[in-house]
Amino acid sequence: MNLTSPHIGLFIPCYVDQFYPKVGIATLELLEKFGCQVSFPLGQTCCGQPMANAGYERDTVGTARHFIELFKDFDYIVAPSGSCVLHVKEHFPVISGLEKEQQEIHDKIFELTEFLTDILNVNHLSGRFPHKVGYHASCHGQRGLRLASSSEMNSTPFNKAKSLLENLEGLEWITLSRTDECCGFGGTFSVTEEALSLRMGRDRLDDHAQHEVEILTGGDMSCIMHLQGIASREGRNVKFMHLAEILNQAIQ
Amino acid sequence: MSHPQAATEFLKDQAKAKWHDETLWFVRDKRDRISKTIPEWEELRNLASQIKENVLSQLDVYLEEFEQNAQKNGIQVHWAKDAEEHNEIVLSILQKQKCRAIVKSKSILTEECHLNPYLEKNGIEVVDTDLGERIVQFLNQPPSHIVLPAIHLKKGEISELFHEKLHTQKGNEDPTYLTHAARLHLREKFLKAKVAITGVNFAVAETGEFVVCTNEGNADMGVHLADVHIACMGIEKIIPRRKDLGVFLRLLARSATGQPVTNYNSHFRSPSPGKEIHLILVDNGRTAQLAREKFRNSLKCIRCGACMNTCPIYRRSGGYSYGSTVPGPIGSILSPGLDMKKHSTLPFASTLCGSCSDVCPVKINIHEQLYEWRQEITKTHGELGKGLSMKLANGIFKSPLAYKISGNLMRAALKTLPKSLIYHPINSWGKGRNLPETPNESFKDWYQRNRK
Amino acid sequence: MSSKAFILSAIRGIGQKGKPLPELPSFGIEEELESAFRKSIEANKGQVVNQEEFSEWLRANNFPKIVVASTSIPFSATISLPEDPHELDDLNLAILEGQLGVAENGAIWLDDRHLPHRALPFITEHLVIVLLKSRLFPTMHQAYEEIGNQHSGFGLFIAGPSKTADIEQSLVIGAHGAMSLRVILV
Description:
The complex is a heterotrimer.
Chain A: E1 7-10, H1 14-19, H2 21-33, E2 37-39, H3 49-56, H4 61-71, E3 76-79, H5 82-90, H6 99-108, E4 109-111, H7 112-119, E5 132-136, H8 139-144, H9 160-165, E6 172-174, H10 189-192, H11 194-210, E7 215-218, H12 221-234, E8 239-242, H13 243-250
Chain B: H1 3-12, H2 14-35, H3 41-57, H4 59-72, E1 75-80, H5 83-96, E2 101-104, H6 108-112, H7 115-121, E3 125-128, H8 131-138, H9 155-166, H10 175-192, E4 195-198, E5 202-204, E6 209-214, H11 218-225, E7 228-234, E8 238-239, H12 244-257, E9 264-268, E10 276-282, H13 286-291, H14 306-310, H15 312-317, H16 328-338, H17 355-359, H18 366-380, H19 387-397, H20 400-416, H21 419-422, H22 428-432, H23 443-450
Parallel strand pairs in B: 1-10, 2-3, 2-4, 4-7, 5-8, 7-10
Antiparallel strand pairs in B: 5-6, 6-9
Helix pairs in contact in B: 2-12, 3-12, 9-10, 16-18
Chain C: H1 3-14, H2 33-43, E1 47-49, H3 51-61, E2 66-69, E3 93-97, E4 100-102, E5 108-111, H4 120-123, E6 126-131, E7 136-137, H5 140-147, E8 154-158, E9 163-164, E10 172-173, E11 180-185
Protein name (chain C): L-lactate dehydrogenase complex protein LldG
Pfam families (chain C): LUD_dom
Protein name (chain A): L-lactate dehydrogenase complex protein LldE
């Protein structure tokens, strides 16, 4: 696949920018390996999701306007985060004067996995990653963007991340007992409902541990930051990688 | 108590909290499996949702049609604008019958109206006949789940309770033994009651009949032995046509407990000769919710409880943590409409994971309404404490320079501050979680060095 | 203003646009009706028996009090029907006639025109329902089509014996109503 003409605006969530630059780098390098022309607009900040989910969507007009102006001229916008992409699509307040641009952004912003499978039509990857991998489905990616079928619904099972990972040589895709239960991060929920958030995170980690997962991956670093925070505090030995890191490392 | 406080309390008994989660997961799993045996499941959900949307869009028309047909059938129809009026109507019927003791099958509406304490205050003995409801009634507790009222109790606790109340053998925890003891106890109540109260699952406008679903048969045991049947329903329980029951009965039990249908699905159309049926149509905040466009379709709810069973929060915090008659996700979008201040923490008791919306048999967008309630609640209850910090954050994020400075400062601070300060108890992130390791440079710094 | 007027005017005051009522497709099932029905009844903790099996069970139990309200098979009552259903409290067995059965879930329609007392299917210790094989329908959709708008003062879809799982989700048969359900398909 060689897409030289479309210009991709790389949207790196604020906490990824600050805490997980390696995920940003992996995303950029991966897209470049597929021949994409990628730019990272330097003026980008936060999409406003933490404020909106806390009940202050009305106070995010400034951040949303800034985002739209910064990204409106790209052919596609890609981010290594289902949660932030869902926020831009569903929870931006209406920005007066930019309605048309806002609608266009809604239609051209993609989470990394779905950009690879649906836009670049990647269906067979050659690469090697000889590990037992457990996938944490972020709820916003899973049920918000429909990156995978949800266990509650009666539909043909699919999982876009799995379709990318399972072709890697040596990779063992681990099926969990609860395939798509929330990890308990939930943005401000992680601090306002601290006890529940921790319990949910531990339960997710236990599920991965019971299935002897070596590397826990996912498409959202926020979930992983939470799970990794617990695992590191409790001395659990599972490793954490963003999906982009696995793909970028496996594909040469 | 706020939801976070109640949840923290609930989680202190780790073993019991784990058991609660696993027990409800078992119910959820049964639902997931049985729903997948029906190829047209998602189509049924669509149909049920559309039928309910049609009903809500012309509720006045259906209510009048229902009343006319029910009256033609010999049912006495009453209207109550609120809980108080509902309770008064029930009491007046009982007084007319000179009735001092009643049996009542499960009705979330009567819980919502606090009918039991009202009747007891007026000297009426109320016996809840659903086994789970009888158990919690003995304990002076409300149901902790709308379908499984005593799901928060372990059999050891029930055994002790029955030993005290029903004189069962001490220490005998066998569910069959305990259930059959309750059967004998309640049989006596059924045989004596002159008036029986039930809830209503569906009321059919075109026929003027109403349907009550149970597995135990307690609703029917009550009403067929009593002289007077009082059925209490929220006005949103109307459906247009008898054939619509086909859609709803296929969805209800499968969603609720993972069984193909409830064992007793009784259609009441006319009283037996010499007997009476009274039906009370209750508003109690429903027309106000109907007027709230964003929250209107919460009234599509058929009270199956599937959103509770699937909710990772409900399973780990228990029904009582919500402090509302209907707990769980659906309760968290219904209750703020009744009392926003009291229930202000409920829409925040969610990660917005969306499982509730995907499981709902009538396709209520529950998690989206939780999000919308948050927007409403912060307008009037800014004291939730997030206001200032969020405005500050917005100020930072809309200005790239401010963001960069604050980001750099944050990373620098995390490196230099002593651990004891970062993991100070007031910092709830750090109580049970480490922060990520702080990288030397942000992605942006890297990008500028490597790609520009 | 009466509460009725209050409620109706509150609804009308919202000024909603009417939304369409969908037509219902008639979904079927793939499996053969009798075998599906049998499986459903068994899943609901009931049993489907033939007349011989039923007669044997009846002989073995020697119930003192039996009420019969079915004309399809030749079994006779041991007691005459009391006027007051309370007197049925110690009834051992009721043999009733089902009007139709639903294969997908085992639900059997009992119409009170065939029920001498509405309390009968509930108050009896054991319940037997006689059902014609020709009266089996695939799903609830066809069942309601068949019932149409027939007027019965009381009608019941019964699918199994009385049951509860209110104590730790452990299934117990015989909560308040019948302790067992047998369906004789003829």
